[in-house]
Amino acid sequence: MKLKKGIPVIDQGDKLGFWGGKFGGNFVPETLKKPIEDLEILFNKLKKDKNFINERDKYFKNWVGSPTRFIKLENLTKYVGGAQIWSKVVSDANGGAHKIYNATVHCLLAKRSGKKVICGDTGAGYAGKMLSMAAKKFGLKCKIFMGAKDIQRQQPNVRAIKKNGAEVIPVYSGSQTLVDAVSECMRYWVANCDKVAMCVGSTVGPAVFVRICGWSTSQISRELKTQLVDEFGSVPKKLKLYNCVGGGSSSFGFWNEFMDYDKKQCEFIGVEAGGPAKSKKHAAPLTYGSKIGILHGAAQYVNQNTDGQIEETESISAGLDYPGISPLHCFLKDTKRARYTAASDEEALNAYKLVTKFEKLRPSLEPSHAFSIAITESKKFSKDTIVVVNSCGDAYKDRGIIEKKLGRKYV
Amino acid sequence: MSNPISHAFKKAKKENRPALLTYTVAGDNSKKQSLEILKSISKKVDIIEIGVPHNTPVADGSQIQTSSYRAIKNGIKVNDIFKIVKNFKKFDRNKPVILMGYYNMIFRYGENEFLKNCKISGVNGLIVVDLPWPENKKFASKCKKRSIFFIQLLSPTTTQKRLKKIIKDSHEMIYFISMLSTTGGKLKVSSKEILSNYYKIKKINSKKNVVIGFGITEKTIKSLKKADGLVVGSAICKEITNSIKKRQNPVTNVYNVVNRLRNKIK
Ligand SMILES: Cc1ncc(COP(=O)(O)O)c(C=O)c1O
């Protein structure tokens, strides 16, 4: 299995949509073959269309807000006493997280295809919130599928979704989290694909959704590359990019522009959710060696039992609480371009405490996982190592959980 | 060696009626009970479809989901399903059995190993909901080698060009999904429209046995009886759920539903 240079990773899949010959694909009911093919044709055409790219860039700049800040975490760096720790504050983006990029592009595509309704899944509520924002902006009706457990633990985002005029459809099946929301959203699309567009909230799902999402979030690394050159004169010799990985959209977007660099120069570190320290359950299929299987239309490493039933996950962070992982990351893992590890609930909370103590930055529980590993590893790195953590979400949505776990003063 | 599925269609045709296919989930509401249900309905049914329950079923509505989750909770494993088939075949050896499920269950088990056990237990056909054409080409030919029918699915969204290609690669039986829906949806298009789509398929190759499924209940079955075969699933799963709720015997209740379905098309 080999990663090619000079070709965007999203375009390195084969004819059937498999990366490395085995990750991804289109394991979908026959009914979805046609709408998926239609979307593929549309996307392949538009991603080469200058007008479309200009339109995308215009909305990214003026509406999403680009670039998001790239800042040095001086106090944290001093405290840690190793590498220079920086952050790309993607939570600056309109709505407070990277999910806005994919949502915007999907709504633009839906408009072009003449669809008037768009449906989407959400875990942390950000994908849903952003889709509801973009749908409102572009005059589409919007339906958001969300697990009942996530509705409870991510109330601020649920309120935002509703305020934007979208309908929130609670999902009560299975573990009542993201995995069930994606399933239910896909079912809704099966029944309504003639009139409704679907947005998958991360780089998961049938191949075209993986590609659209990766293409959209790559805005993050395009900005970062310019910012690095502005700051250091060139891409640093020792650069390490830390990102939490749920489905894998923020991390993929954070790394994409640096793909062709040698990993000795630009190392990618993906941090999965290890779950509570005491629990056997986790949401870290890459770290803990889960076997390959099929989930939501794509072959990927996924938590499952020996019979092929998808296993329940556990994580304090709703956005990372997913048993599978993008086929793109399976590909990056097996080609050894990226390295994956996990942080536990407790480690993420500790990192949140540290970052908020030293900096004017409040990463949500998802990026707190990435901060945890970045802080630990930075201690061992030389002073000329540039560590960058994608702070891809704001903790406002997690205030309930943080107050409960850490007490009032941390909210 | 001919496949009993072909016999079943021939027999129904001779009797001037569509074949009746029932879908129940293996292990619903228990391993033992699901076998009892199959035995009790067997003489009223032409082809038995057995669902392999999966806990992330992206094409199933609430009725079949409920049955699947119940079966999984009661501990059903793929090997138990082969045992159920084997025991059922001891009871009614000529009744064709089709397993219907999601690809991950087969993938995890290993395609070859799965097919070997299908053969040993007496499975005659397979429907894999999320393994569409052309992704299914390799697996379908493996099935063919073992004289197991791989049953291609067609949908109202399948283009004419694609229809032709899929039908060309199909075995003797094809499954036409009546409408855009998950299983268990209300029939939202007219039977006239469904049949007109059905005839489009028959026109491409009249020799294939085409069954219609999704949205078929006691209310709607009669209007579609011109088809080669009709599949009823959710209506039966729902009966099991209701029987449990009412503390009645699902075996008798399901038999009664199937009997009524059969009477409507005879
Ligand atoms: C803030 C934030 N970060 C990360 C994630 C994980 O998703 P992904 O790996 O696709 O970026 C989510 C998902 O909801 C999120 O809301």
Can you describe this structure?
The complex is a heterodimer of chains A (411) and B (266). Chain A has helices at 33-46, 50-65, 74-80, 99-113, 126-137, 148-153, 155-163, 178-192, 207-217, 219-232, 249-255, 327-334, 345-358, 365-378, 399-406; strands at 18-19, 23-24, 69-72, 84-89, 117-122, 141-147, 167-171, 196-199, 239-244, 266-275, 292-295, 298-301, 338-344, 386-390. Chain A has 411 residues and is an alpha/beta fold. Chain A folds into two domains: 19-59 and 98-214, Rossmann fold, CATH 3.40.50; 65-96 and 218-410, Rossmann fold. In chain A, helix 13 (345-358) crosses helix 14. Chain B has 266 residues and is of the alpha/beta class. Chain B has a single domain (4-264), classed as TIM Barrel, CATH 3.20.20.70. Chain B is built from eleven helices and nine strands. Chain B is globular. Chains A and B meet through helix 1, helix 8 and strand 11 of A and helix 3 and helix 5 of B. The complex binds pyridoxal-5'-phosphate (PLP). The site of pyridoxal-5'-phosphate has 20 residues of chain A, from helix 5 and helix 11.
